[in-house]
Amino acid sequence: MTTKRITRDSIPAWYQLSFFDGEKKMIILRIHEDFLPTLERANDDSPIVKDFLSTFGFDFFSNDIKEGFGFEKTFLRTSDGDAGGFVDFAIPIPRVKVWEKTPCSHCEGSGKSEYGPGKCIFCEGKGKEHRMEWKKPYAISATFTLFTTLASIFGYESETSAKIPQLLTLQTITMKDMHGAEIGGELSPFVLEWIIEKAEQKEKDEFSIAPVEEALRNTYKRMMGGSSGYSERGIRSWGRKSGFIAIDCPGNATGIYTDGSDISYRKKGEGCTLSSHNVDSPIQQITLIAGLAKLHDLVLHKNAQV
């Protein structure tokens, strides 16, 4: 028996992603009510839950699907479901880089570079010291890893009653190490067809996806304590008429993209797999997931301007 995959089959969705770019930046995870009880399979006795609690020192884990799910209850339920049967869980983007009142030790609070004209590279011209609060981004990353693991194991057999297909899937990892926040997944033919269609409309071999770049930028800035020149570097999203897509964020060539061999040998009407490169921290991982969530919005609402 051939196993169904979203890369070649239209399968009723078990979850969706969305990005809310209001005053509070949020990734929205929309889980179909038929799949929702699957989350209760994870509990305090699950090996993966025990490992994450021990490794990262989280205070608690919640599998309460009526209020909130995950480590530190980072996935907050915000709806009772819509007409399509999807229940919303909000994941607020946390502030990770926190500015303190203490003057910067490098520029002595002047905000000016000690090496010449320009801003101090250590305080970005703010003249203040900062600290990094890692617990919340690691809790979000670990909860995504737990959720995407459950979704990859049980999603295909869930047989939801959703009227729309699963557009993409994710699988994340969470470790305190190099490459400890990599992302994989699959894109359905609907996503690749959208990319190809946009390239044809623009009559270009390659085009930028500005709404995705905006989601990346705003998510990264939120976590990194506000705007800075560095926030702009490395942020890019583009598609090609072959169906290739890449989403990059600040780092050492950090990003997620369609697998090259999949694109090269892809048959019409097929999707492809996603791979990532040099995703080392939960900040980068959350930024890229926000970009993918915005891409999901654009494909789901095909008339959106790009």
Strand line-up across the major sheet:
9-10-15-14-13-12-11
Query: Structurally, how many domains make up the residues?
Result: 2
Determine the fraction of residues in helical runs and give it as a percent range.
25-40%
What low-confidence regions span 5 or more consecutive residues with pLDDT below 50? none
Overall mean pLDDT: 91
Strand runs, count? 15
Question: What percentage of the residues does DSSP assign to strands (E)?
Answer: 25-35%
Rounded Rg: 20 Å
Compact summary:
The chain is of the alpha+beta class and 306 residues long. It folds into 2 domains: 15-96 and 133-300, no CATH class; 97-132, no CATH class. The protein has helices at 47-56, 135-154, 189-202, 210-223, 229-232, 260-264, 282-300, and strands at residues 15-21, 25-32, 61-64, 68-71, 75-77, 86-92, 97-103, 128-132, 168-172, 183-187, 206-208, 236-240, 245-249, 254-258, 272-277.
Could you describe the 3D structure shown?
It is built from seven helices and 15 strands. Strand 1 and strand 2 form a beta hairpin. It has a seven-stranded antiparallel beta sheet with strand order 9-10-15-14-13-12-11. A six-stranded antiparallel beta sheet has the order 1-2-6-5-4-3. It has a two-stranded antiparallel ribbon with strand order 7-8. It is 28% helix and 26% strand. With 306 residues, it is α+β, with helices and mostly antiparallel strands. 41% of the residues are buried. It folds into two domains: 15-96 and 133-300, no CATH class; 97-132, no CATH class.
